[in-house]
Every structure is written in C-alpha cells, then in structure tokens.
C-alpha cells in the first residue's frame, strides 16, 4: 500500500528542488534510461531515516562536485511502485534496496550504492562515495563547454 502523498511530498521535494526529475511510471523510466544521452543518476528515494539523514543530504552535497551526471532522476519506493520496479529491473546483479542510488549510461547500469552502504554512514561519507562515482563516470562539463 503506497504511503499517503501528504507524508511523501516534502521528501520528494528535497530532490526536486535540487533539479531531479521524478519518474512515476514504467514508461517514464524506460524513456529516460533508454533515450537520455550521458550519465543518468537515479535516486530510489524512501521514507526511512537513512534516506532523510544520509542519502538525500549526501546527494545534495555530492552535486557540488565539478563532475556531475547530466540527468538527475528519482523514483519513490513505496509510492511509485511501477516506476521503482522498472528501475530495479535495469539494475542487474543487485538486490533491491531503498534508499539506493544508481548511475546509468545508455540504459546500462554502471554503478550502484545500496542501502547497506548508506545506512550508518554520514551524509558527507555518502557524498564522498558519490563524488568518486561521478568522477569516474561523468565527464567534466566545464572542460566540454
């Protein structure tokens, strides 16, 4: 049973305010992951404490890095059921978890941060892990302009 949207809306908005595009259907997920050029970041958002205290703040900190994904997207586990299931179908070899964060390139999953590597860490530690992934998989936008 999905969560009450009134509860979830502020948690959604934390990422939307940072420039994330919400994907609420499987078609939106397919369209985004198959057709976007360049790195696509997908945050599988959640109502849990580690999403609020570590994942979302860590993502916000990591986006200050020089290298960032060209496309920022999100689905909400427990709310966007169809979209979340579709994103997870693209993440091969990983157990479903939320919150979690994935990077895709041309529809292929290239990097994944599962919940067990988020919970119990600080937002800064999560950000540093993301920055390492951004530096590995995302081009330097400034150098290409």
Percentage beta strand: 15-25%
CATH superfamily: Glutaredoxin
N-to-C span: 46 Å
Please give the CATH architecture: 3-Layer(aba) Sandwich
CATH class: Alpha Beta
Biggest sheet character: 5 strands, mixed
List the quaternary state of the chains.
Answer: single chain
Counting DSSP E segments of at least 2 residues, the number of strands comes to: 5
Average residue pLDDT: 93
Q: What is the CATH fold-level name? A: Glutaredoxin
Number of helices: 6
Q: Which percent bin holds the helix content?
A: 40-55%
Order of helices and strands: HEHEHEHEEHH
Radius of gyration: 14 Å
What order do the strands of the largest sheet run in, or round the barrel if closed?
1-3-2-4-5
Question: Low-confidence parts lasting 5 or more residues at pLDDT below 50?
Answer: 141-145
**How many domain modules?**
1
Shape: globular
Q: Structural class of the secondary elements?
A: alpha/beta
